[in-house]
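Propose amino acids for all 351 sites.
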C-alpha cells in the first residue's frame, strides 16, 4: 500500500482540472455557472470532511462504511442535479463524454455487485454463528460438539476468499486511468461538468478502494490519489485519505482474521469461548452474552451497508438508463443498436 508520503503510483497521471478551467483559452464562465460549480464543490468538501474519522477506532467499521456509501449516494445525486441545473441537454454532450460516462458507470456497477456479494457472504457466516449459539444455549454435551463444528465452519468461511472481490483491484486500476479529464472545446458548461465529475470520481474511487481493501484483507486495493491543492475539496480529501491509509496500513500488519472492527469483535468472542467448548464445559448466559451482542451488531451493520450499496447501484443504473433513453430520443437508436453501450445497458438492468 502506498504511504501518505509516497509519490503517486506511475499509472495515476492525473490532469489538473483547475488549470483546464482557468486556461486563457477556456470560455469565460458566467456568474451563474461559477455559482453552480462553487456550490457543488463546497458541498463535496463538506461531505468528504464528514468522512474523516474523529478517532482511530472509527476506521474500517461497518458504521463508517455505511456512512461512506450513503455519502456517495448523496454526491452522485448531486451531480445529477448539477447536470439538470446546467441545462446541458444530452444532444450537446460530446461523444467522448458519453463514452467515458458509460464506461465508468459499468465498472462502478461491477464494484457494487462485488461488494454486495461479499456482504451477502458475510451474512451467511452469521447463520453459522446463530446455529452455534443456539447449541450452546442448551448446555448439552452433544450440542457442544455441534457448536464447535459450527464455529470451525464460521472461521473457515470468514477466512475464505471471494473471487469477485479479488477482481476489484483490476477494476479500480482501470478506473484510475479515467481520471484524466476529456478535453472540452468551446463549452463553458461542459468544462463545469467535467470538473465536477472529476471530484465525484476521486471520492468514489477512493472509497471503493477502501471497501475493496477491507473485504479482501489486502492493502493492494487501497488507493493513494493526488489532487491539485487549488481544488476547494482537496484539503478535506487529503486529510481523509492520509488518516485512513495510515491506520489501515497498521491494521494489515497485525495478525488478525479481519480488519473490519465489528467482525474482529465477533472473532475475539469466539476465541474466548472456544477453549471451554473444546473441553466440553457448560457455558452460562453471562459468558456468552458478549459474543451474542457482537454478532448482532455485525449482522445489523452489514444489513445497513447492504442497503446503501443497493441504493448506490440503483442511482448508477438510473443514470445510465436515463442517458440511454435520451440518446434514443434524439435519433441515436440506430447507432446504439450496434454499439457496446446498448449491450452494456442491457447487462445491468438489475442484480
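Proposal:
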Amino acid at each position: 500500500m502506498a504511504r501518505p508520503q509516497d509519490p503517486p503510483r506511475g499509472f495515476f497521471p492525473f490532469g489538473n482540472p483547475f488549470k483546464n478551467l482557468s486556461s486563457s483559452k477556456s470560455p469565460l464562465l458566467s456568474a451563474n455557472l461559477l455559482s453552480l460549480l462553487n456550490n457543488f464543490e463546497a458541498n463535496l468538501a463538506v461531505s468528504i470532511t464528514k468522512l474523516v474519522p474523529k478517532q482511530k477506532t472509527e476506521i474500517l467499521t461497518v458504521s463508517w462504511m455505511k456512512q461512506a456509501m450513503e455519502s456517495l449516494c448523496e454526491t452522485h445525486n448531486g451531480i445529477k442535479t448539477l447536470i439538470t441545473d446546467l441545462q446541458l441537454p444530452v444532444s450537446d454532450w460530446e461523444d467522448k463524454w458519453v463514452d467515458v460516462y458509460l464506461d465508468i458507470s459499468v465498472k462502478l456497477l461491477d464494484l457494487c455487485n462485488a461488494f454486495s456479494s461479499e456482504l451477502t457472504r458475510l451474512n451467511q457466516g452469521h447463520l453459522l454463528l446463530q446455529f452455534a449459539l443456539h447449541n450452546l444455549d442448551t448446555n448439552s454435551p452433544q450440542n457442544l460438539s455441534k457448536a464447535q463444528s459450527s464455529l470451525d465452519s464460521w472461521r473457515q468461511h470468514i477466512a475464505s476468499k471471494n473471487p469477485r472481490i479479488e477482481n476489484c483491484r483490476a477494476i479500480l486500476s482501470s478506473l484510475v486511468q479515467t481520471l484524466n479529464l476529456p478535453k472540452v472545446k468551446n463549452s463553458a458548461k461542459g468544462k463545469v461538468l467535467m470538473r465536477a465529475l472529476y471530484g465525484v470520481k476521486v471520492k468514489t474511487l477512493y472509497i471503493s478502494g477502501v471497501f475493496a481493501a477491507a473485504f479482501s484483507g489486502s492493502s493492494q486495493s487501497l488507493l493513494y490519489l493526488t489532487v491539485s491543492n487549488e481544488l476547494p475539496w482537496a484539503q478535506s480529501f487529503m486529510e481523509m485519505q492520509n488518516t485512513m491509509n495510515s491506520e489501515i496500513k497498521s491494521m494489515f500488519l497485525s495478525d488478525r482474521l479481519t480488519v473490519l472492527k465489528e467482525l474482529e469483535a465477533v472473532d475475539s468472542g469466539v476465541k474466548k469461548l472456544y477453549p471451554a467448548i473444546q473441553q466440553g464445559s457448560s457455558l452460562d448466559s453471562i459468558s456468552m452474552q458478549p459474543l451474542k451482542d457482537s454478532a448482532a451488531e455485525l449482522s445489523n451493520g452489514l444489513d445497513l451497508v447492504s442497503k446503501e450499496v443497493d441504493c448506490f447501484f440503483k442511482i448508477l443504473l438510473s443514470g445510465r438508463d436515463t442517458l440511454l433513453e435520451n440518446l434514443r430520443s434524439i435519433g441515436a437508436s440506430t447507432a446504439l443498436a450496434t454499439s457496446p453501450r446498448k449491450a452494456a445497458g442491457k447487462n445491468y438492468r438489475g442484480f
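The chain is about 70% helix and 0% strand. Residues 17-312 form one domain.
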